[in-house]
Amino acid sequence: MKIITSEQKPIGNISYFVQMQGDAPISVYVIHGSKGDMLVDTGFSSTLKPLKAWLSKNNFTITDIFLTHAHPDHDWNAAALKELYNARIWLHTNDVSLIRNFAAQSQVPTSDKFTGRVRWVSFWTKTPLFKSKAYVPDVIFTGEDKDLPISYGYDATIVELPGHTLGSSGLLVDGVLYAGDSYTVLNEVPQIPPHVTSIELMNASIEKNRGLNPDFIACGHGLPFPSNEGLS
């Protein structure tokens, strides 16, 4: 399975690892702080081995794991990486009930063309094959905690981006919005995700993204892209 990293294809100052998988690649990022490094999302079952190799090769010191939301393609390796690095797991309070329980927040397609995809995802995530290993978040945050990363040594702001899930959140760091699945890159085209918990909330988050006016968007699926390619 092809892997693209920031060393192979630099995009701004973003440290990224992208696993090319189907039409929606899996993306993981590292944010650097004064006391250590923060991993943004953890990928899916096939991500762990190459991700660990990339983290080791770059001598990242992972002290924190920020989950943009609690879907299995983002939190699958949270437990393993927490144990490996003795890292803190961060998650929005509205997604705690979603851990290992995809059905806790139903998903609707954002377009008729994604109806079959939603049915497939909703079916398989009810099975043990699509349940992440159990974990307990160490830092459970809310919208009132936007500056919390600063106290942990990160020059970053938490941005609530509900829609894909109720607790979906991102980080704004040095002109880069680590946006989770408030955007996705399908077949190399930036767009809104194929399924969400609330289309109304998703649209509001897209408007928030526009207002933030970042230089780059680093989403949960696909390579980071200049914001003017996805905010029109």
Shape, per Cα inertia axes: globular
CATH architecture: 4-Layer Sandwich
Derived structural class: alpha/beta
The major pleated sheet works out as: 7 strands, mixed
Short description:
This protein is α/β, with parallel strands linked by helices and 232 residues long. The protein is 22% helix and 27% strand. It has a 7-stranded mixed beta sheet. Strands 9-10-11-15-16 form a 5-stranded mixed beta sheet.
Outline the structure in words.
- There is one protein chain.
- The chain is an alpha/beta fold and 232 residues long.
- The chain has one domain (3-229): Ribonuclease Z/Hydroxyacylglutathione hydrolase-like (Metallo-beta-lactamase, Chain A).
- Helices cover 22% and strands 27% of the residues.
- The chain has helices at 48-57, 72-75, 78-85, 115-124, 148-151, 199-212, and strands at residues 3-5, 15-19, 26-32, 37-40, 62-66, 88-92, 108-109, 139-141, 157-160, 169-173, 176-180, 184-186, 189-191, 195-196, 216-219, 225-226.
- A seven-stranded mixed sheet has the order 1-2-3-4-5-6-8. It has a five-stranded mixed sheet with strand order 9-10-11-15-16. It has a two-stranded antiparallel sheet with strand order 7-14.
- The longest helix is centred in the last third of the chain and has 14 residues, at 199-212.
Would you spell out the secondary-structure blueprint of this structure?
Elements: E1 3-5, E2 15-19, E3 26-32, E4 37-40, H1 48-57, E5 62-66, H2 72-75, H3 78-85, E6 88-92, E7 108-109, H4 115-124, E8 139-141, H5 148-151, E9 157-160, E10 169-173, E11 176-180, E12 184-186, E13 189-191, E14 195-196, H6 199-212, E15 216-219, E16 225-226
Parallel strand pairs: 4-5, 5-6, 6-8, 11-15
Antiparallel strand pairs: 1-2, 2-3, 3-4, 7-14, 9-10, 10-11, 12-13, 15-16
